[in-house]
Design brief:
Aminopeptidase, homodimer, about 35% helix, 6 strands, 6 helices, alpha+beta, five-stranded mixed β-sheet
């Protein structure tokens, strides 16, 4: 997900890819294929997709999934999510968690990932979060630094 | 939050501290003082605490705050939370995020933090999560390793 686009390329992409919230119709626009480039994601049935979509919709502005649609093909070229955590610390502060950012292999290097991440960050800021955090592999530090993030801590995990 | 308790100490703590979900009455049991040991947390008004408590209660099993109450004093000695994220990847998988774990300074070194974290992990497992993740400072790697976590990635943050 390294980027080295020129301003001209970024301008062109502004027309070529439309960033918008996930829609029910996106299951047939390559959403699962895109996610499979990030993590094991077998194709979802229409029912499973609709059920999860409805659960997330019920969370309103506290969970946003954005996708970038390729205007030429109608297929999805990138996706990412942000969820809002409600805390007690910092005067009942809110924290945005950026998750599952993926740019399709064919579309990398055009600044689309950065545009998408900035949109997720804007959403969290508009929702009143005092910070946005994410976890990434060490190789992606440079990409997220370009998006305005600084390295903070260590991520640990426990797998069942 | 370093621990070096003996089995005997752990056993005694099993009676001395009761780990249970956060309650409305906990505002007067030192909840904000405890959180202030973790992060800037000015005292909350009763209204602010009740409002956030209700928001989290509405999330049901998807957001759990546990506290440890000192049986002798009735004050809170530790707290921690886990929230469940609903994903599309991994067949609409669920991920638990452990947040805001704090053990009061006077109670550290008795294994209470580990007991609390293990309870949060159990909750996430019971809820069907395929993993639990958390972010911590490098100094706490050893503590979380003892709780069953392995180091995975880098945490990055963007502060507004």
């Amino acid at each position: 997900m390294e980027h080295s686009h020129t301003p001209a390329a970024a301008e062109a992409d502004g027309d070529a890819y439309r960033i918008r919230p996930l829609q029910l119709a996106d299951l047939s626009k390559g959403f699962c294929d895109l996610l499979a480039q990030l993590s094991p994601s077998p194709p979802l049935t229409e029912d499973a997709f609709r059920a999860r979509f409805a659960e997330l919709a019920a969370l309103g502005a506290d969970h946003l999934v954005l996708v970038a649609e390729d205007a030429a093909t109608g297929q999805l070229a990138a996706a990412g999510a942000v969820l809002v955590e409600r805390k007690f610390i910092r005067r009942c502060g809110l924290v945005g968690h950026v998750e599952d950012v993926v740019v399709g292999a064919a579309t990398r290097g055009r600044g689309l990932g950065e545009r998408l991440v900035r949109r997720l960050v804007e959403h969290a800021k508009g929702r009143g979060c005092y910070k946005v955090i994410l976890n990434c592999t060490p190789e992606l530090r440079g990409f997220y630094a370009k998006c305005g993030f600084v390295e903070k801590n260590v991520q640990m995990g426990l797998y069942f």
